[in-house]
Amino acid sequence: MALLKVNHAVAEIAGSQVLRQVSIDIAAGETLALIGRNGAGKTSLLRVIMGALPLVHGSVEFNGRDIAMLPAHDRVGLGIGYAPEERRLIGKFTVRENILLPAWAGRLGRAEIQERLELIDFVAPELKDLSARLGGLLSGGQQKMVALGRALMAGKHMVLLDEPFQGLAPALALKYADMLRALRDARPDLAVLVTESNPQLLQPMADRMIVLERGEIQVEAMEKAIV
Ligand SMILES: Nc1ncnc2c1ncn2[C@@H]1O[C@H](COP(=O)(O)OP(=O)(O)OP(=O)(O)O)[C@@H](O)[C@H]1O
Ligand SMILES: [Mg+2]
Question: Ligand 1: distance of its center to the CA of 41 in Å?
Fold first, then answer.
């Protein structure tokens, strides 16, 4: 059964449609790659899932429950972690505080926080050395790692990673790919939705690929990307 289902999603920004009848589903344990060029609608789809962009038409179901009308702040407890494209760390908070933010917002219990911190240590051990540094004083690549850690704190069931490889130097991109593999090993039941403009990059780690173009899913492009 699908953990998340987006059905015929239509969304608009400034009066123009950025998602046109987009339907996707993702099961627990699946890694789904969402591929599309700049402006294709990848971020818009993730924002719809998080409740940051309203639907004009369509529905979003999570664990069999329709959440389309659920405001963003009420989605905190659903267990969906989000690492936005532009990271959005709080510059005056330390790395550790940035990672703990969703735990405070979601009122996670001590044991759950501890379990999530252990997962983050396993997936991204480099974050340990950075934990006392201020978010605003990190490099872009380091911030991406913190954003992953923060998403894992919130992501009990699923994480949404928006172009995590964008702008990473090759060595750091390899490291990030290793982290995703470590995450797969440690949390085989987690659903991972990751976006990218280049299909080659995610091919080795994705179970399935979906191609978006101008707000629409492109079935033909998907078949090409798979062969
Ligand atoms: N704040 C905004 N104001 C106006 N139009 C916007 C805004 N944000 C996005 N759009 C438009 O919405 C469409 C979808 O954008 P979206 O950010 O979802 O694409 P994307 O696939 O994430 O692109 P990228 O690879 O550049 O991140 C684009 O046509 C974009 O120009
Ligand atoms: Mg985007």
Answer: 6
